[in-house]
Design a protein that fits this description.
alpha/beta, 21% helix, globular
């Protein structure tokens, strides 16, 4: 397959389309069409144009997310050894699931499951049949040490229940965590150390309950702070020290505050949270958290150029509609592609370091791959599943290069007639029920709504509250907690489900003076997702100069939102 990466000579006018799912109108911009022209592949000397989307950006994002199950884990038996393993596939789904060492081992060959393409059937129908037959990796974690209970993770050491993480050590209960050490309960944090309950922050040290912060240390309950140290319950401060509720304190005054909140209790946490919210309501917020960016729109973007509708992105260029995606180049509609993003790609979810590819889910390290799932270190493949170090395969069947090019050209022509070419996988192709996937976190649906839209649903057994007197309530002060808590079951105050404290977690709470949580790790995660800024931009005006801005805050938000110029004048 060859790739042409020269810009289109004609710039089409901006045009309107209507989403085939939700009927919302959306814009197809000239740069969108230019990108599709650039990355449209050539097979057998013929270019196959990627069509413009038929779904609006949120519906495209929802569809991609509906394939990714991170945290719903089950006990199953390996299809190879029969041993009990932990898996993101529940046993009742009927898939062949094997442990990591078995999947990577030499006892089986993915091409043994290969089959001919049937031009009397749709691509989706044949892909689903293949998906049912091949063995699947129980958890997606690669190069991990003492980090078995992680998923969509690589290069982890001594980490537990990290979902979507890379290059972390001694971390617990996090999502989209990169290059962090000794952090607990964090979401979208980068290069942080000894931190707790952090959201969308980077390079912070010894911070507790913080969000949208950069290069700060020894802070508690801070938001939108940069270069701060020893601050408590502060908002939107830059390069400040020893502040409480945004007031500058003398060294002796701050020592009293530091001593007061060195050890936190639920009562102190509730008070600081309440006071911080009062403070935030009276101060303006920046329309976006973008740092060292040029010609970008979105939220929490760092060191990017010409990236639009980008969220949690860094070191990316010429991209659009990218989410949790570092180091992306000239790509669109890509979700959870870390730590190395895509180049010249479209419509990806959960990929790592893909180039010149389209419509793939869970594909790590590849070039020129289309409509594949759960593959690693594979190039030039079409419609393949569970491949490792393979080339020139279709539906897991091996071909010579010339045969491959000819066959893929015919398949794309077939998919053009069925309306499948250019689209992502359809919901029935996925292995998981909608409410098992992260789509439910960002696009919550009822069971009836999900089924109506073509997804499946998994009914969970209702929680059983503890019998009277059996629930253990930990002391409010961590100093009063003994090691016997490791043998206790705590019942979540939100879900009524029991959970336990692990040894490393207890040591962390003692080190940072934190009370034992009375909410389960899963419910704490959902609370952080709710606090994380939205993945959608809204049109509004700056509340000071009235200049039009694109921001994650709706017009009706009950606080002031300033454009960059007005905000910088306010805080500096």
């Amino acid at each position: 397959m060859t790739q042409t990466q020269t810009p289109a000579t004609k710039t089409p006018a901006c045009r309107q389309a209507r989403c085939r799912s939700c009927s919302t109108p959306f814009t197809i911009a000239p740069e969108d069409e230019a990108l599709f022209n650039q990355i449209s592949p050539i097979f057998n000397s013929k270019r196959f144009q990627i069509p413009t989307p038929t779904l609006c950006p949120p519906c495209r994002q929802q569809l991609r997310m509906s394939f990714r199950n991170e945290r719903k884990l089950y006990k199953v038996k390996s299809a190879f050894s029969g041993e009990e393993i932990i898996s993101m596939f529940s046993e009742d789904k009927g898939y062949k699931v094997v442990d990591r060492d078995e999947w990577w081992g030499d006892s089986w060959n993915p091409t043994a499951y290969g089959r001919d393409f049937d031009f009397t059937k749709s691509f989706a129908e044949q892909f689903r049949a293949l998906y049912k037959d091949v063995p699947h990796l129980n958890l997606q974690n690669v190069n991990t040490e003492n980090s078995y209970y992680t998923n969509y993770a690589l290069n982890q050491k001594n980490s537990y229940l990290i979902f979507g993480g890379s290059y972390n050590e001694d971390c617990l209960y996090g999502k989209f965590v990169t290059y962090c050490t000794n952090c607990v309960d964090v979401l979208s944090c980068h290069a942080c150390e000894v931190c707790y309950e952090g959201i969308a922050s980077e390079r912070c040290y010894n911070c507790r309950f913080f969000a949208n912060c950069r290069s700060s240390h020894d802070c508690t309950f801070v938001e939108d702070c940069t270069g701060c140290e020893n601050c408590v319950a502060c908002f939107s401060l830059k390069f400040k020290k020893k502040c409480f509720l945004n007031r500058q304190l003398s060294p002796s005054e701050f020592e009293k505050i530091k001593k007061e909140y060195e050890t936190l209790t639920p009562e102190k946490i509730a008070y600081l949270s309440q006071e911080l919210e009062k403070l935030k309501s009276s101060l303006p917020r920046p329309y976006a958290h973008m740092y060292n960016c040029e010609d970008c729109t979105g939220e929490f973007i760092l060191n990017c150029k010409n990236c639009h509708s980008a969220f949690d992105a860094r070191e990316s260029e010429d991209c659009k509609y990218i989410y949790f995606c570092p180091k992306a180049i000239h790509s669109q509609d890509c979700t959870f592609n870390a730590p190395f993003g895509p180049e010249f790609c479209y419509n990806l979810c959960s990929s790592v370091a893909l180039k010149s590819s389209m419509a793939n889910f869970l594909f790590w390290y590849g070039d020129s791959v289309f409509y594949c799932m759960e593959c690693h270190h594979t190039n030039n493949c079409f419609g393949c599943i569970s491949m490792r170090h393979n080339n020139y395969c279709v539906l897991n069947k091996q071909y010579e290069r010339s045969e491959y090019e000819t066959l893929v050209a015919r398949i794309i022509e077939h998919m053009q007639t069925t309306g499948e070419w250019g689209e992502f996988f359809t919901p029935p192709t996925g292995a998981f029920a909608y409410n098992e996937t992260i789509a439910q976190e960002y696009f919550p649906l009822t069971k009836e709504e999900a089924l109506e839209k073509g997804w499946t649903w998994r009914d969970e057994e209702p929680s059983q509250p503890p019998s009277p007197g059996s629930a253990y309530t930990p002391p409010d002060n961590i100093k009063d907690v003994g090691n016997d808590i490791l043998d206790k079951q705590i019942y979540c105050s939100v879900s009524d489900k029991p959970f336990k404290i692990v040894k490393e977690e207890l040591a962390f709470y003692r080190r940072l003076g934190l009370p034992i949580p009375q909410i389960s790790p899963a419910e704490r995660h959902y609370a952080r997702v709710a606090k994380h800024n939205a993945l959608t931009l809204f049109e509004r005006t700056c509340d000071k100069c009235k200049k039009p801005i694109q921001t994650v805050y709706r017009k009706e938000a009950p606080f002031k939102v300033y454009c960059e110029e007005c905000y910088l004048k306010e805080v500096y």
